[in-house]
Design a protein that fits this description.
This protein is of the alpha+beta class and 333 residues long. It contains ten helices and 16 strands. The strands form four sheets. It has a six-stranded mixed sheet, with helices on one face. It has a four-stranded antiparallel sheet with strand order 2-5-10-11. The longest helix is centred in the C-terminal third of the chain and has 20 residues. The chain starts with a strand and ends in an 8-residue tail after the last strand. It binds (3R)-3-hydroxy-3-methyl-5-(phosphonooxy)pentanoic acid.
Length: 333
C-alpha cells in the first residue's frame, strides 16, 4: 500500500442543508445545492502506520479531541464497513481556518473518503464515494463531486438514493466569484451536528423552511443553468436568512453571528440598492460571510468590505473542482 494524497475543496451551499431525517445514516431533511471554493484547499495524505495504531495529524499537530473524534469515528466506520485492518497515519492540512464555519469538514471528509478509497483500493464510484463522505459530514457529499453540485435528499430508508451529483462543472460560469469576508478565525461556538438537531427539535419555523425546499431547488437549478445572478443571489440570501431564523427561534436560541456579520450583511444590501452592483450574501454555521458576485465588481466590493469594522480580511475565490488525487490532472479519483 503506497502513500496517497488527495485534494478537496470546501463547498458553500446556495440552498442549505440543516437537519437530518436519519441521524445514523446522515440523511438530510431537504436536498441542497452548492458551489465549490477553488481558493480553499484541504490536502490529505494516508501512509501505513509505523505501529499498530491509527494516527491523526491535523495542520501538522496532534488534533484536539473535538476535531479528532469525528475523524476517528469515520475511520472506524470505514474499517468496519470494508473490513480494513491495516493501521494508518492520516495527515491533513487546510490552507484556511479549521472548524470556523468555512466548511473545513466538507473538504476534510471528502479528501479523507477519497484517500481511503485509493489507499485501500475500494474502487468506489463518485456516487458511492459521495455517500461514504456523507457519513463524515453531510456537506462533504457535495465536495466529492465539486463544481456546482446537488445533494439529493433521497427517500429510501437505507440512504442509497441520498448522494451528490455534479450539476455543472467548475468551468460553467467563469465570471462568478465568491468573496469570503473573515470576521472570526476561532473554532466555532457550537458544532453544526448538535445545533441542527436542536433546531429540528425546538424551532417553530423549521417546518415552514422545509416546505420551501422543492421550489427553491428548482429555481436555483434554473438560476445556475441560465447564469442568472440576481435570481441565484436572492434565493441564496433568503435561504440562508431563513435557515438562521430557524436557529434564532430554537430553544435555547443559536446565533452564530458576531457584530461584523450584521455589518457585512447591511453593507452588501446597501451596495446592491444604492450602487446597483449585483452582490448577495450567504452565511453558514459561523460568523463569516460569503458574497456572491461577478469578477468585474470584485475590486469595488473588496475596497468597501475591507473597511468594515471587524472584517479581518477577505479572500476571493473562483469555482473549484471535484475531489482528486494530487498527482492526477483530471479531477476524479
Ligand atoms: O456538513 P455539516 O454537518 O458541517 O453541516 C453543514 C451545514 C451548513 O454548512 C450550514 C449548510 C450546508 O448545506 O453546507
Amino acid at each position: 500500500m503506497n502513500t496517497i494524497t488527495t485534494v478537496a475543496h470546501p463547498n458553500i451551499a446556495l440552498i442549505k442543508y440543516w437537519g437530518k431525517r436519519d441521524e445514523q445514516l446522515h440523511l438530510p431533511t431537504r436536498s441542497s445545492i452548492s458551489l465549490t471554493l477553488e481558493a480553499f484547499v484541504t490536502e490529505t495524505t494516508i501512509t501505513p502506520s509505523s505501529d499498530e495504531y491509527d494516527h491523526i495529524i491535523v495542520n501538522n499537530s496532534q488534533a484536539p479531541d473535538r476535531i479528532a473524534s469525528p475523524i476517528t469515528t469515520f475511520i472506524n466506520y470505514c474499517k468496519n464497513k470494508y473490513a480494513l485492518s491495516t493501521p494508518i497515519t492520516i495527515q491533513t492540512s487546510n490552507n484556511f481556518p479549521t472548524a470556523a464555519g468555512l466548511a473545513s469538514s466538507a473538504s476534510g471528509f471528502a479528501a479523507l473518503a477519497a484517500a481511503l478509497n485509493v489507499f485501500f483500493s475500494l474502487r468506489l464510484s463518485p456516487q458511492e464515494l459521495s455517500m461514504l463522505a456523507r457519513q463524515g459530514s453531510g456537506s462533504a457529499t457535495r465536495s466529492v463531486t465539486g463544481g456546482f453540485s446537488m445533494w439529493h435528499k433521497g427517500v429510501l430508508p437505507d440512504g442509497s438514493d441520498s448522494y451528490a451529483e455534479q450539476l455543472f462543472p467548475q468551468t460553467h460560469w467563469p465570471e462568478l466569484r465568491v468573496i469570503i469576508a473573515i470576521t472570526q478565525q476561532d473554532i466555532k461556538i457550537q458544532s453544526s451536528r448538535h445545533a441542527m438537531q436542536q433546531t429540528i427539535e425546538t424551532s417553530p419555523d423549521y417546518g415552514a423552511w422545509i416546505a420551501t425546499s422543492e421550489d427553491r431547488i428548482a429555481s436555483m437549478r434554473n438560476a445556475l443553468a441560465t447564469k442568472d445572478l440576481p435570481l441565484l443571489g436572492e434565493l441564496a440570501e433568503q435561504d440562508s436568512l431563513d435557515m438562521h431564523q430557524t436557529m434564532h427561534t430554537s430553544k435555547p436560541p443559536i446565533n452564530f453571528f458576531v457584530p461584523a456579520t450584521y455589518r457585512v450583511m447591511r453593507t452588501i444590501k446597501e451596495i446592491r440598492t444604492k450602487q446597483a452592483i449585483p452582490c448577495y450574501f450567504t452565511i453558514d454555521a459561523g460568523p463569516n460571510v460569503k458574497i456572491l458576485c461577478l469578477d468585474e465588481h470584485v475590486p469595488t466590493l473588496l475596497k468597501t468590505l475591507n473597511d468594515i469594522e471587524g472584517v479581518l480580511y477577505c479572500i476571493t475565490s473562483t469555482i473549484g473542482p471535484a475531489v482528486h488525487t494530487k498527482d492526477k490532472e483530471i479531477h476524479s479519483v
